[in-house]
Amino acid sequence: MVTGGGGGLGTAICTRLSSEGAAVAVVEKEREKAEKVADAVLANGGRSLAVEADVSDKSSVEAMVGRVADELGSLDILINNAAIYPRRAWTEIEEEEWDRVMAVNLKGYFLCARAAFPHMRERGWGRIVNVSSITFFVGWTLLLDYVTSKGGIVGFTRTLAR
Ligand SMILES: NC(=O)c1ccc[n+]([C@@H]2O[C@H](COP(=O)([O-])OP(=O)(O)OC[C@H]3O[C@@H](n4cnc5c(N)ncnc54)[C@H](O)[C@@H]3O)[C@@H](O)[C@H]2O)c1
């Protein structure tokens, strides 16, 4: 299951996982983006499922994970990849915009991991891959909320691993 699977990196991740033999669930907020990548995987002889969902919404995530497990048979690998990165000066970031970036980039990873993990535990195998960003390690202009969320992902990943 690849969140943001219809975006730039997401499309490449879906293509590669399919070429390695995985059935791929392409998760997108916009249905057309998910269908485009899912159709390309099918056209290349792979198995895929397009899923419209908002990773920042708990009920949407739970419905999405249930559908993926039902229709593809299991959920073994979660690639947490969906993120937003609006660019503007940090003094222009409104509170609601800050909250939205954290909801998608940080809470979304937690919600997806939280919902997917029981399926992995049940089968005794699983992998959760969280896409962060080099911008966290160096700092970046015009992306204060985004870079802050990506730093959170580093802590989230290290702690989840333990
Ligand atoms: N592009 C880069 O140079 C770069 C560098 C470092 C890290 N990253 C990371 O790679 C990941 C993918 O980045 P990208 O450049 O491919 O971005 P992108 O914008 O092309 O793709 C992100 C996808 O996530 C989807 N999405 C956004 N909000 C969503 C939501 N609430 N629910 C479901 N889907 C949602 C978007 O529709 C989009 O297709 C991100 O985590 C980003 O932080 C990207």
Observed structural traits:
162 residues; binds nicotinamide-adenine-dinucleotide; two-stranded parallel ribbon; alpha/beta; Rossmann fold; 5 strands
Helix percent reads 55-70%
Report the sheet-strand fraction. 5-15%
Uncertain segments: none
Question: How far apart lie the N and C ends?
Answer: 22 Å
The overall strand count is 5
The CATH architecture can be given as 3-Layer(aba) Sandwich
The total number of structural domains is 1
| Alpha plus pi helix count | 6
Structural class: alpha/beta
Oligomeric category: single chain
Large-scale geometry: globular
User: Which whole number gives the mean pLDDT?
Assistant: 98
What's the CATH class, please?
A: Alpha Beta
Let me know the CATH homologous superfamily: NAD(P)-binding Rossmann-like Domain
Order of helices and strands: EHEHEHEHEHH
Biggest β-sheet strands, sense, barrel: 3 strands, parallel
Question: What can you tell me about this protein's structure?
Answer:
The chain is of the alpha/beta class. It has a single domain (2-161), classed as 3-Layer(aba) Sandwich (Rossmann fold). It has six helices and five strands. The strands form two sheets. It has a three-stranded parallel beta sheet with strand order 1-2-3, with helices on both faces. α3 (58-72) runs parallel beside α4. The radius of gyration is 16 Å and the shape is globular. The two termini are 22 Å apart. Bound molecules: nicotinamide-adenine-dinucleotide. Residues 3-4, 6-10, 27-30, 33, 53-56, 81-84, 104, 131, 133-134 line the site of nicotinamide-adenine-dinucleotide.
